[in-house]
Amino acid sequence: xxxxxxxxxxxELETRVRSTALGLPEQEEITETFSGIGFRIGAHFFVxxxxxxTELLRVPAFTRxxxxxxxxxxxxxxxxxxxxxxxxxxFFSYESxxxxxxxxxxxxxxxxxxxxxVVDGVEGMQYFAADSFDETVPExxxxxxxxxxxxxxKDRRIWSRFSMKALSDHEQFQEVAV
Length: 178
Fold this sequence. Notes:
Elements: H1 6-20, E1 33-41, E2 44-49, E3 55-58, E4 72-78, E5 81-87, H2 88-91, E6 104-110, E7 113-119, E8 121-129, E9 148-154, E10 157-162, H3 164-169, H4 171-174
Parallel strand pairs: 2-10, 5-7
Antiparallel strand pairs: 1-2, 1-8, 3-6, 4-5, 6-7, 9-10
């Protein structure tokens, strides 16, 4: 039996290890995703990008305001800022069957204006493959169509892509006085 030098011993060990080593895992294709906050107005499900929603809240105490449209619930002091609360159901002329205290608020900041949008429910973070976006506006009431940029389908549910910017820029949304 010949004695191997340390270098030869290391080479032999390397050969044995390489012969039994598993290959590298296959590189998975990374798919781009769209993520956003899911919310509900009546029976319709929407998703808005995270960049358009700054905060989610329960409906706080608020003070009603005189001489404003019925869809303006009032203002609320949220962390030292007075934020108008807008009932999106009323804005779109829908009745909400949910009591006000069980509903949720999406706080948006657009054009240096902060608003609290009261919705029927928040459906949490939603993730979609970016290439699954369809630019056609799904079958929704006409009042909602100017604010919908297209839709995703997930688990047989249609999620309309809602633009908070389009809502905030809309002339009717800006005219709150009676």
